[in-house]
Design a protein that fits this description.
- By secondary structure, the protein is an alpha+beta fold.
- 20% of the residues lie in helices and 34% in strands.
- It is globular and about 50 Å long.
- The model has no long low-confidence stretch (mean pLDDT 95).
């Protein structure tokens, strides 16, 4: 069995892979997560450059909901800087996948299909200012709107930009 946090993170990444597959999109990843990006998700284009986004996937089994957003404290300042600001050629997003506390509830199969629990959300940090001297020991609170639900449709819209 996987360590609980590794299992949770793997499930979050697989959740995103399933959505991308259902949307007819392609996923690739670098051989190491050096740039703070888990995946490049792109739309196939036969006419040149394929539109794409880059994403960092995070998970939580204890979401902190405040009004119409989740307060996520799982990024340190260095990780935050790899997503924040307007200086990336490819738009970057934080994907937050809320998962059940018990791993045996991550997925359920019944006669109507496979159910993945719970829900993924997205937020762009393009409008946030990166830290001048990022500290890996200090965490940053990111507000992830509950209206930004990851679906097949919204994933395509993020790529279409």
């Amino acid at each position: 069995m996987l360590d609980a946090l590794v299992h949770q993170g793997k499930f979050g990444e697989d959740y995103v892979r399933v959505l991308a597959s259902a949307a007819g999109l392609l996923i690739s990843s670098d051989d190491i997560d050096y740039d703070g990006v888990d995946f490049c998700i792109k739309m196939h284009s036969a006419t040149g450059w394929s539109p794409r986004i880059e994403v960092q996937v995070k998970t939580t089994s204890r979401p902190q909901r405040r009004a119409a957003a989740f307060d996520f404290d799982g990024l340190n300042q260095s990780q935050f800087n790899k997503l924040a600001g307007p200086d990336f050629l490819v738009h970057r997003y934080l994907f937050l996948v809320i998962v059940p506390a018990k791993t045996d509830q991550y997925a359920a199969l019944n006669t109507t299909g496979l159910l993945l629990r719970d829900v993924g959300y997205y937020v762009s940090l393009r409008d946030r200012t990166p830290f001048d001297q990022p500290d890996k020991k200090k965490h940053v609170r990111v507000s992830v709107p509950t209206a930004n639900v990851l679906t097949v449709t919204t994933l395509r819209q993020l790529i279409d930009g």
